[in-house]
Amino acid sequence: MVSIIPIPAFADNYIWLLRDRANAVVVDPGDAAPVLDYLVREDLALTGVLATHHHNDHVGGIPALLERYAVPVFGPARESIPGRSRAIAAGDVVCLPGLPVTLTGIDIPGHTAGHIAFFGDVDGQPSLFCGDTLFAAGCGRLFEGTPGEMWKSLSTLADLPAATRVYCGHEYTLANLRFALAVEPDNATLRERARSEQAKRDRGEPTLPTSIGLELATNPFLRVSLPNVKAAVERHAGSSVADDVAVFAALREWKNRF
User: How far apart are CA 103 and CA 93, in angstroms?
Assistant: First the structure.
């Protein structure tokens, strides 16, 4: 059995750790200290590192981990990742060292130019590690990519099975839901999700993982083709928008200033 554990880091990051009884692989270890604490406490051996993109809050802990553990680092082919031993591009397969898990790389540029995701079956569940591209009820900022690139990346992720568990990089859910409700105040599923996720945070629980199905029902950035979302964007912008990419771009700008 392989479990997926959230390790909180910094103010709102999650480092995801896949583990069995003896071995562990970490995803986006921006800080080594909480990972090392967990490994020691649970008596686990680190056997590998996955990185989705080059931002320091996702890779800053890799050098310190490599000082303790001589393990492979799998990261995006088009970005500079500290200690990377294998460059991953779309369709590349990663067999996680020491764990019965195989993941496939997906190119998802937009947040950064070479951002990737890792997708595959983990203990019988389709699972996606998508860094800062798709968030619960939101999406990442466009630091290096274009709206067209980001929309294509999100569309690629939206086509994954609805049951796919989504493990993203930050606990941004409540803020994202407040924006989503500004866009779709009449979405009953969204209102119920806001109540449910607030209750989780009140109990000190993560709101993640989410699922592709839930995102399709409540995440405005996956719903830009719907007439009511397009209409909300046009009312806010005070002008018409031509197509899905234009709706997405205007929606992202709205969120930036929300």
Answer: 6
